[in-house]
Amino acid sequence: MQNSSQIKVWDPLVRIFHWTLAGSFIVAFATEDDLMDLHVWAGYLLLSVILIRVVWGFIGTEHARFTDFVTRPSTAWRYVKDTISLRAKRYIGHNPAGGLMIVMMLIGLLLTGLSGIALYGVEEHAGPMASLFANGNYAWLEDPLEGLHEFLANFMMLLVVIHVSGVILESLLHRENLVRAMWDGYKNSDNVSNQ
Q: Is residue 10 within 8 Å of residue 63, measured between CB atoms?
């Protein structure tokens, strides 16, 4: 039972998406060369939840919609500067920097997954893109695709570190447990700014 100063912010789909995405990325990242089947299935799961999340970003609940948290990059940058100077406003949904991070992560993970599917098709002649590479010699694509896939995966890990650091900083700055909020869906309703 939640107390009266708390409101439901994150619906179950957003929370399941968040933790499934995090788990599938960690599994895919950790198993890149050693457990190819697990790596591939984690990638498929990751792409599936991204597709669901994009749809939910248009038809979902208030704070799940892109219109609630996608702002101009300049607004996000201004929010980052306000956070560094410890005077950032608190948002009930995602703040402008968090919104930008979501967009960057969705695009980055989509590109990582698609480059992985292409690499899987070229190297293993398997997966959804295998038929594209069945007729002809595409071995020359292996190294560039592998380099791209690894670069994107490492770039995503950098974004994950920035994201987690931002969550910790925001939690401390606003005295709010954002990890718990993404787990149970509730945030305090006090001192909230709107976009």
A: yes
78: closest CA among 68, 91, 89?
89
Q: What is the DSSP letter of 72?
A: -
**Residues 82-137: tens digit of each pLDDT:** 999 989 999 999 999 999 999 999 999 999 999 999 999 998 888 898 888 877 77
Q: How far apart are CA 149 and CA 67, in angstroms?
A: 30
Q: Residues 47, 20: contact at Cβ < 8 Å? A: no
Cα distances (angstroms) measured from residue 148 to each of 37, 90, 107: 20, 37, 14
How far apart CA 110 and CA 35 sit, in angstroms, is 21
Q: Give alpha helix (H) positions in 31-141.
A: 36-59, 66-69, 73-84, 96-124
DSSP 34: T
**How far, in Å, are 16, 103, 156 from residue 22 at the CA level?**
10, 15, 11
d(CA 41, CA 30): 13
3-class SS of residue 187: strand
Strands 6-8 and 186-188: antiparallel
- CA 125/CA 115 separation, integer angstroms: 14
